[in-house]
Amino acid sequence: MSSPVDNAPVALEKKSSSNGDAEAYKVQSENALGAQPSPDDFGFSEAEQKAIIRRVDLRLVLTVGAMYCVSLMDRTNLGAASIAGMQQELKLVGNQYNIISLVFFVTYIVFQPPSTVIVRKIGPRIHLAAITILWGGCMIGMGFSGNWRVMAGLRVVLGVLEAGFFPSCVYLLSTWYTRYDVGVRNSMFYLVGCVAAAFAGILAYGIMHMKGLAGLNGWRWIFVIEGLITIVIGIAGYWLLVDFPDSKRDTWKFLGQRERDWICARVHQDRGDVQVPPFSLKEYFRVGKDWKVWAYALLFFNTTTTTYALAYFLPIILNVNMKFDVATSQCLIAPPYALAGIVMYVTSKIGDKYRLRGPIVAFNMMLVIIGLPIMGFHADPAVRYFGVFLVTAGANSNVPAAMSYQANNIRGQWKRAFCSATFVSFGGIGGIAGSLVFRTEDAPFYKNGLYACIVTSIANLIIVAALSWAFYIENGKAERGEKELEADEEDFQPGFRYTY
């Protein structure tokens, strides 16, 4: 597939105008030789450039953030439903709750690798809106489950549908922004979803009071109402989502062609991979030979083990371990996630400004390592709840930090697609681990789960150290001109350097 940049001008004929769209530009003969335009060639003032990026932020980041909100809410509302009566009505015993939690991730992992290829072929609007509407219907079905097997089966279907969402969003965001713009955008995308989903506990508490309406228990209404919300947002997403910047499909023209060409030129100047080569299955999987791809994925696995453990078991831990009542447990979920939103935004701003990625990941993991022993072992429940703040802030802030770390150090469209899929797939495996680490038989202290989360956090510090050393070696080769001799065509770009 060719990019609009391939057909964009390398020089512009500028005309004075107060309206940027009125400024004409023309294709020069150099374009026939395949020259790429510079962003400066388009003649946009600094104010116009900021206005274009702001429009992209509002249309893209907020839309996928809102859709991710319902995605996160729908996959993690089991904890709220559990203490709202699901455990008793479905007569869950032994490890049945754990099974219901983890079966989602089996299909969620298996169906992720094709998703970034599909979204390129049919476009984000159709792909993301359709699966969102369908999983909303699946959520409504959960509200009418008669036993744990039906619930588990619907969770399997939910995994199939949600599998295509997160990797497609990560990939889509990375194609619109340069490497040192993407940190804040990843943070805002995840922040909108994470903080809003945190208040799902309060929403669930309110919905619980519909108990008895239409003969349904309160926990059933949690699934039904949240499923309806998901369907509405999925329908809105079809009208609001944007396509890839280089796509020729109609995206409701929220940007003019000249503005989209400028976006493409900007990304190409930054990392030189705006063009999309023809898809090749062999080339797609060849990317797997790069060990760094799996290091990024393992980094995300370690992160999501803790985030999903919190999502599924925090209401239960607050209720069983810290002895808060059901209503208080539902409401106490929100404040730690609000702190997480602040931490992830501030650290992302610092990361983009100083072009840092690894140290941000390490800082987040230190918060988790400090917070887990406090959360698990202090005698005072109020102090243990303070530990919840540290763990929630560090673990959740590390999701966009790891996304940006990976996005900054990947080149090539199909390599980016493959890496996004493997990255999120390992996050799904982390979801399986997170579903299992806090076992019912370990109540009320859940020591094994705490130890597992501490180990994964320490492992992330080791991975960051290994990647930083590898980046130091590779950047040194590039500085000395050695990299050009050994790198393959896709991976090498003059001037490209890995981000520590």
TrEMBL record:
Membrane topology: Multi-pass membrane protein
Keyword check for Transmembrane helix: yes
Pfam families: MFS_1
The species this protein was found in: Cercophora newfieldiana
Keyword set, alphabetical order: Membrane, Transmembrane, Transmembrane helix, Transport
Residue intervals passing through the bilayer: 93-111, 123-144, 156-177, 189-207, 219-241, 293-314, 326-348, 360-379, 385-405, 417-437, 449-473
Disordered, as annotated region: 1-23
Cytoplasm in keyword set: no
Taxonomic lineage from the root: Eukaryota, Fungi, Dikarya, Ascomycota, Pezizomycotina
Entries under InterPro entries matching the protein: MFS, MFS_dom, MFS_trans_sf
GO cellular component, one term: membrane
MF annotations from Gene Ontology: transmembrane transporter activity
Cell compartments where the protein resides: Membrane
Sequence ranges assigned to domain Major facilitator superfamily (MFS) profile in this UniProt record: 60-477
Main location: membrane
Protein name, entry field: Major facilitator superfamily domain-containing protein
